[in-house]
Amino acid sequence: MRLENIKQVAVIGAGMMGSQITQLFSQVGGYPVIVYDLNDELVDQGILSIKENLKRYFVDKGHMKQVEMDQVVGHIKGATDLFEALENADLVVECVFENLELKKNVFKQLDKNTPPDSILASNTSNLNITEIATATKRADRVVGMHFFNPVSIVKLVEVVRGSLTSHETIETIMALSRKLGKEPLVCKDFSFGFLANRAYTAMILESVQMVWERVASPGDIDKALKLGYGLPIGPLELGDSIGVWKILAMSEGDRVREVGPEKGYLHPLIRMMVRAGYVGGKGKKGIYDFYREILNAGRGDSL
Fold first, then answer.
1. pTM for this structure?
2. Could you confirm whether 267 is annotated as catalytic?
3. Is 5 a catalytic residue?
4. Residue 301 counted as domain residue
5. Selected catalytic residue, list 19, 122, 128, 158
């Protein structure tokens, strides 16, 4: 599959990343996109967020006319039937929750329901592409295509080469990323962070350690890093917003096997937070709340 052969795109998962990636493929790439999720409510929420983003950041700021926005949205179709979403897809981008077994199950379905030459890409930020590809009969056409939030702004796309990913697949995804206005970098297929996330996770964990030592509050740690290094969002804020604490907790065993106990075991503060339900993510409490309600209230030592 070469770039010129990609005519139809499917995105699996209409959540925060899936909806943004869908918008990118339609708005910048000009591709017709089918975005799939489990029910109409999830699909409708995803498409609504696309409309709101286009209006707020493009139409209202004079970067796009209403008729152009309507064209972008017109290229997007929602689906709750997986076969309908996949039957004509030349490229599929998977954006489901960061769980290896879940992703392998999804890729088994993608392999079964897409044309045999289609490329299957995962937006995973840290799971092993080679292992995901074992769920398919086309490991040469399985690749990582990791976008960063917010997708419309961050230029980087990590293109992750699995052990059996073909050179042609990598070249096609590199060319596609450039067409989408991104700067792609090819990454080694290493579990628990490829390039940017591996380094950034170290920053998150060191920030957690500073909270643990009571060096400063989460807000002050984030503020120092934003002011000192020009970060748009602090690492602890980001951890709370995307629910990284739950992700780290769920992947602890795999991390220990991959990188050893020193780096793999969960930080005790994160373990305390997750046990207490402070896992982060949309509408859920995270480290900011745990610090304010537990640690700074003098109750942390009893947990």
1. 0.86
2. no
3. no
4. no
5. 158
Q: Return the H-helix or E-strand segment holding 61.
A: none
Please indicate, yes or no, if residue 300 is contained in any of the structural domains. Answer: no
Determine contact, residues 107/133, Cβ cutoff 8 Å: yes
Query: Catalytic: 125?
Result: yes
CB count, 10 Å around CB of 213?
9
The enclosing domain of 108 has a CATH number of 3.40.50.720
CATH number at 222 reads 1.10.1040.10
* Longest CA–CA separation in the chain, Å: 61
In Å, what is the CA distance from 192 to each residue of 102, 202, 251?
A: 16, 11, 9
Catalytic residue among 122, 125, 128, 166: 125
Cα 224 from Cα 229, distance rounded (Å):
8
Among 146, 166, 191, 207, the active-site one is: 146
63 noted as active-site residue: no
> Which of 118, 122, 197, 251 is labelled catalytic?
197
CA 155 to chain centre: 14
User: What order of strands is seen across the sheet that includes strand 91-94?
Assistant: 76-79, 33-36, 9-12, 91-94, 119-122, 142-147, 156-161, 183-188
The one-digit pLDDT tens for each residue of the chain (303 residues) are 899 999 999 999 999 999 999 999 999 999 999 999 999 999 999 999 999 999 999 999 999 999 999 999 999 999 999 999 999 999 999 999 888 899 999 999 999 999 999 999 999 988 899 999 999 999 999 999 999 988 999 999 999 999 999 999 999 999 999 999 999 999 989 766 789 988 998 999 999 999 999 999 999 999 999 999 999 899 999 999 989 999 889 888 877 877 788 888 999 999 999 999 999 988 899 999 999 999 987 654 544
Asked whether residue 74 falls in the same domain as residue 7, the answer is: yes
Domain count, the chain: 2
Q: For residues 141-172, b (16+ Cβ closer than 10 Å) or e, as one string?
A: bbbbbbbbeebbeeeebbbbbbebbbeebbeb
Partners of 77 in the β-ladder: 34
Domain extent, residue 207, equals: 196-295
